[in-house]
Amino acid sequence: MLDGISRVKQHLSRKHAPEFYCEYCMAVLPNKQAHQAHVEARACSYRACRFPGITHQQQRELSRRSKPNLSEPERWFAIWDIVFPGRPRPASPYIDTDLSEDLCQFKEFAEAFGPAIVATQMQVRLADAEPGEAAEEENVAGWAWRRTSSAAESEFESGPRDRSTERSFVIGGSAKLA
Fold first, then answer.
1. For residue 47, which of 20, 27, 19 has the smallest C-alpha distance?
2. Which helix H or strand E contains 176, and what residues bound it?
3. Cα–Cα nearest to 62, from 45, 81, 37
4. Distance (Å, rounded) from C-alpha 170 to C-alpha 177?
């Protein structure tokens, strides 16, 4: 596992920065001769796509020393901003080693998009509802999302445990184990 900022920067430069690539079409080339021939041929088309690695410009930015006045999390986020420009930062620069990376990503997805997904599904449902039912269902949807979010947050905070023999259900606003 890479545990230091300098080691991560070194890893990115060694393993994710192709030496030869076309900055126009983003094709990665095996050597200097192939790169030169590709550039001279001028036969490629511009591709505005996600480059499969870090560019020379990103590599130069990563090689600069971190600003000493930044906290460690801010330095990690500075790396994020260089490697993933324009993408929103995660909630934390650290991965909770007790949770899988997929679960952490799902948590971030649910926090970012969960309310909108619930709202969209409720709008579809409410389109067919009677006027009195619609207001009641909107209240129920808000309550359901708040309860779901609260329960999920409690689970994340309590950490992993063996749930193979547990069945949980909600009664009166609190989780009960059966």
1. 27
2. strand 174-177
3. 81
4. 9
- Full DSSP string of 68-112: TTS-HHHHHHHHHHHHSTTSPPPS-SS--TTS-HHHHHHHHHHHH
Query: Phi and psi of 148, rounded to 5°?
Result: -60, -45
Nearest to 86 by CA among 46, 47, 57, 50: 50
Residues 6+ apart with CB under 8 A from 154: 175
Contact indicator for 77, 83 with CB cutoff of 8 Å: no
Q: What is the pLDDT of residues 65-94, one digit of tens each?
A: 888 899 988 999 999 999 988 889 988 887
pLDDT at 174 > cutoff 80: no
Q: How many residues does the chain have?
A: 178
The pLDDT, as a whole number, for residue 123 is: 73
Please state the pTM of the whole predicted model: 0.51
